[in-house]
């Protein structure tokens, strides 16, 4: 019941969306827009500031600067471009590494090529290198339609609009306000790998959409979709149902009613994965129904 991405952690209704981009924490944040500092009467200055907007960048960001990686001193469009390159299977395992984003110190203006310390406006040509700029996360992005914001508790920038999210201190992540009074809290819910694909990054930092399940555990949305396509409807971590299965249980009731059971005299104890109740039921080769919640998501004990 939920989903996540890099640069934010947005949770929607049944499948919460989250997204993230930058880990370091710091006391200051400027996620503003230097346009507000430009006098409207100074058209030349404003034109320089806006020059090249949405014309530069990479597959990850529209921005008007590149970065010099502090780890290997090479130049890349963004930290994700660096990580994809330096973690490639073509690279010797001993040389693979991630860019320590909070250590980023130098950026290169895409318009004039001036290398300089991290800042929003180029010291040489005056262009804005990112309409959204977070000096804590060293994040630049011209595509402000993402509604980026910095969460000081998470220590990262997220997307989707600050007013649409709240930070759950127990789960340790930002979730959609839709889930504020309905999600199941799991301590550090995002701070682990996806239990299906074991993606290298924690879900907390994943650029792919993440779903928050009814049980509170998290998983890549695409992995959850693949699970359902293969008729797998139980959380891989706790075995609770990942969606409302009541209709499926009703169909199974009808099917089992048409089948004869040659073990009418045999009783077994079962544990319900959904509600945790223990029941003693008549043995059946197909499935066992929980007496408490009527779920067939059970196992023999």
In terms of topology, how is this protein built?
Elements: E1 4-5, E2 18-19, H1 43-50, E3 65-68, E4 75-76, H2 79-86, E5 106-109, E6 115-117, E7 132-134, E8 139-141, E9 149-151, E10 156-158, E11 165-168, E12 173-176, E13 210-212, E14 218-220, H3 221-229, H4 246-257, E15 267-272, E16 278-282, E17 298-300
Parallel strand pairs: 1-2
Antiparallel strand pairs: 3-4, 3-5, 5-6, 7-8, 9-10, 11-12, 13-14, 15-16, 15-17
Could you walk me through the main structural features you see in this protein, from its secondary elements to its overall organization?
By secondary structure, the chain is α+β, with helices and mostly antiparallel strands. The protein has 2 domains: 4-225, no CATH class; 246-300, Rubrerythrin, domain 2 (Single Sheet). 12% of the residues lie in helices and 19% in strands. It has 4 helices and 17 strands. The chain has helices at 43-50, 79-86, 221-229, 246-257; strands at 4-5, 18-19, 65-68, 75-76, 106-109, 115-117, 132-134, 139-141, 149-151, 156-158, 165-168, 173-176, 210-212, 218-220, 267-272, 278-282, 298-300. The strands form 7 sheets. A 4-stranded antiparallel beta sheet has the order 4-3-5-6. The protein has a 3-stranded antiparallel beta sheet with strand order 16-15-17, with no helix packed on it. A two-stranded parallel ribbon has the order 1-2. It is elongated and about 85 Å long. The two termini are 29 Å apart. The relative contact order is 0.15. Residues 1-41 have low confidence and may be disordered. This is RING finger and CHY zinc finger domain-containing protein 1. Keywords: Metal-binding, Zinc, Zinc-finger. Residues 194-239 form the RING-type domain.
């Amino acid at each position: 019941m939920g989903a996540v991405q890099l640069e934010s952690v947005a949770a929607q209704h049944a499948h919460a969306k989250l997204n993230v981009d930058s880990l370091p924490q710091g006391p200051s944040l400027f996620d503003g827009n230097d346009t507000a500092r430009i006098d409207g009467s100074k058209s030349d200055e404003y034109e320089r500031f806006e020059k090249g907007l949405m014309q530069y960048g990479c597959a990850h960001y529209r921005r008007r600067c590149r970065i010099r990686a502090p780890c290997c001193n090479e130049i890349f469009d963004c930290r994700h471009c660096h990580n994809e390159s330096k973690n490639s299977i073509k690279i010797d395992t001993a040389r693979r590494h991630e860019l320590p984003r909070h250590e980023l110190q130098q950026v290169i203006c895409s318009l004039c090529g001036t290398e300089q310390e991290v800042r929003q406006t180029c010291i040489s040509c005056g262009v804005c290198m990112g309409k959204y700029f977070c000096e804590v996360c060293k994040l630049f992005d011209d595509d402000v339609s993402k509604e980026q914001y910095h969460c000081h508790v998470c220590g990262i920038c997220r997307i989707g609009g600050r007013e649409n999210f709240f930070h759950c201190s127990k789960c340790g992540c930002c979730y959609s306000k839709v889930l504020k009074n309905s999600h199941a809290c799991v301590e550090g819910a995002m701070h682990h790998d996806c239990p299906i694909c074991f993606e290298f990054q924690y879900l907390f930092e994943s650029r792919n959409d993440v779903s928050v399940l009814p049980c509170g555990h998290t998983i890549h949305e695409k992995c959850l979709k693949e699970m359902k396509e293969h008729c797998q409807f139980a959380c891989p971590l706790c075995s609770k149902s990942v969606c409302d299965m009541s209709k499926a249980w009703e169909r199974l009731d009808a099917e089992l009613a048409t089948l004869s059971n040659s073990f009418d005299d045999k009783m077994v104890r079962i544990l319900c994965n959904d509600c945790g109740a223990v029941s003693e039921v008549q043995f059946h080769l197909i499935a066992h129904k929980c007496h408490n919640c009527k779920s067939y998501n059970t196992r023999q004990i």
